[in-house]
Design brief:
Length: 147
């Protein structure tokens, strides 16, 4: 079963702050039945950002949370309409985010997916696809490889 569907992908997401983007991700997760409570998931995403930025660099963020409110593991992808300040490790604004969701009991998925995604983000061709692909199917195929 795929962890990402067309409904988990949003192009030109409105938002001007990191919190607005995280809130939108939480709402998408709730609307798609991935989490039982959007507000709790939003708070978990914010808590993670306070611990350490998820701004990976190269214009990509990887917000993630493992929590009991997550009903099933999944991947969300958003590309922002405008670049967002994210406190990224390279100090560059973020233009796309890959969000990983995991239930409390799926620590293995959570860590494995984060590790695979971080390795893939080291490759400029992967990053370029995230920034420029215009078809959901392309993003679904490359993001499914991190699960």
């Amino acid at each position: 079963m795929s962890l990402i569907t067309e409904q988990h992908i949003v192009f030109a997401l409105e938002g001007s702050t990191q919190k607005e983007i995280l809130h939108a991700l939480a709402e998408i997760a709730f609307q798609e039945g991935k989490v039982s409570d959007a507000d709790t998931f939003f708070q978990e995403l914010c808590k993670r950002e306070q611990e350490c930025t998820t701004g990976f660099g190269k214009g990509i963020a990887i917000p993630h949370a493992r929590h009991a409110c997550v009903k099933e593991a999944g991947i969300l992808f958003v590309r922002m309409k405008h670049r967002i300040e994210w406190q990224s490790i390279d100090q560059e604004p973020v233009e796309a985010a890959v969000c990983l969701l995991a239930p409390d009991d799926k620590n293995d998925f959570h860590l494995r997916a984060l590790s695979k995604l971080a390795r893939r983000l080291m490759h400029d061709d992967f990053v370029e696809i995230l920034k420029t692909a215009e078809k959901e199917q392309i993003l679904m195929e490359i993001l499914d490889t991190v699960s």
